[in-house]
Amino acid sequence: MSLNGKNKTARDVILLTIIFLVIELLDELVDGLRGAAWPLIRNDLHLDYVQVGMLLTIPNTVSSLIEPILGIWGDIGQRRQLILGGGVAFAIALLLISLSHNFSLLLAAFVLLYPASGSFVSLSQATLMDIEPKRHEQNMARWALTGSVGNLIGPLVLAFAVALHQSWRSAFFILALLTVLVLGMLWKYQKAIPTASSKIDQPMQGFKDGIHNACLALKRRKVLLWLTLLQFSDLMLDILRGFLALYFVDVVGANNTQASFAVTVWLGVGLVGDFLLIPLLERVRGLDYLRLSTMIILCLYPAFLLAPNINVKLVILGLLGFFNAGWYSILQGKLYTAMPGQSGTVMTLNNLSGLVGGLMPLALGLVAQQYGLQNTMWLLLAAPLALLIGLFDAHKEDVSAEEIQKRIDALMEK
User: Fold this and answer.
1) d(CA 49, CA 55)
2) Do you know which SUPFAM superfamilies this protein is assigned to (predicted)?
3) Do the beta carbons of residue 123 and residue 79 sit within 8 Å?
4) Fewer CB atoms near the end CB (10 Å): N or C, the chain?
């Protein structure tokens, strides 16, 4: 039964929601496994730092050029095929990684994996937003929680494989098999997947119209606001996580075990925050919580950098991971709400803004090389500062909109 019309059922929504969340879990399992496996991959394939940098940069750049096109296609009637095709490519990429015995084959596998993830995972997220358009923040919170679980379990999959005297290749092969199983589930319920976004009664658009709509969306102030805040928020999310282990080793003077434990604290306590956010959003407005958590982070982060004791730093780090839970899910949910019926285009604009935001780690690396990592870490304060300014602006617009609605309601009563 199609979800494109009134025949949509609660059973379809529940089943698709579960499948899409499993897809996100799988994607973050791969990400967590890959992050933990880098030392083993580097030693096994005899990679130098330049090659590691290429493996992280080239696939991301290629994907950033391809995924905007996939997002527009997803809005004009190709979504079902793109999700299924992306899943097949995702499984093939994982299989190629497990078979890689040199740099070239591994690079090719990553170049396939990144856009495959966009088609398979990002369009699944977009479709999840479409099937329940009034619960964007709540479903994004579930999505973020599932991703956090996957990211935490990923390194455990590698540890389990190593404990059984297997290599990192075996772990990726297992995930390839899991992808095939998930694809089987998705294939069974493929008719329930919308072929396009939720513009139910509008005619099918052409690709040029999709590009035109994306350009128009970029001119909207609210859309630009959420896109900008999403990029700034990443400074206190993935970018901070990327620098954490190096910070504890190079600045704090911790050993590798302590640095790994710090990352685990960050992820583990953040997982608790993601879990508690789901019931919280049923009672509290997302923006109200976001403003409060931003102010708390603005106080906690300088305390983290200034704390002289590693144990104190770990406690504050856990609090940081707890209170920044919800940043991504609420902001991304707001972006979907600002663009009703254009969830695929949301993916397009996220990738375009990501081309700019993707330069931030490189810029921070250059600053760290010149001025030291300790000084560079202070620049991440730009995240809560930008959010406070942007959320204040959004709050004023919300108040104005509520006032206008009240006046309309009053006129209607008269």
Assistant:
1) 10
2) MFS general substrate transporter
3) yes
4) C
Closest-CA residue to 22 (of 159, 137, 125, 134): 125
- The domain ranges of the chain are 10-197+206-401
State both tokens at 281: 């959003």
3-state class of 339 per DSSP?
coil
382 in Cβ contact with 229 (< 8 Å): no
Is 187:84 a contact under the CB 8 Å cutoff? yes
- Whole-prediction pTM value? 0.80
Residue 359 CA to residue 161 CA, distance in Å, equals: 34
Amino acid letter for position 41: I
Q: Which of 193, 192, 176, 8 is nearest to 82 (CA)?
A: 193
pLDDT tops 60 at residue 407: no
Angle CA(153)–CA(313)–CA(28) in degrees, nearest 5? Answer: 20
Instruction: Tell me the C-alpha distance between 256 and 297, whole Å.
Output: 26
Instruction: Tell me the percentage of the chain whose pLDDT exceeds 90.
Output: 37
Residue 53 reports pLDDT greater than 60: yes
Reading phi first (left if > 0) and then psi (alpha if -120 to 50, else beta), residue 41 is in alpha
Separation between Cα atoms, residue 127 and residue 347, nearest integer Å: 11
Model confidence pLDDT, tens digit, residues 279-329: 998 888 889 999 999 999 999 999 999 998 899 999 999 999 999 988 999
Q: Which residue has the higher pLDDT, 50 or 107?
A: 107
From CA 202, how far away is CA 79, in angstroms rounded?
Answer: 16
Give CA separation, 42 vs 49, 53, 102, in Å: 9, 11, 10
Looking at the chain, the number of H-run helices and the number of E-run strands are: 18, 0
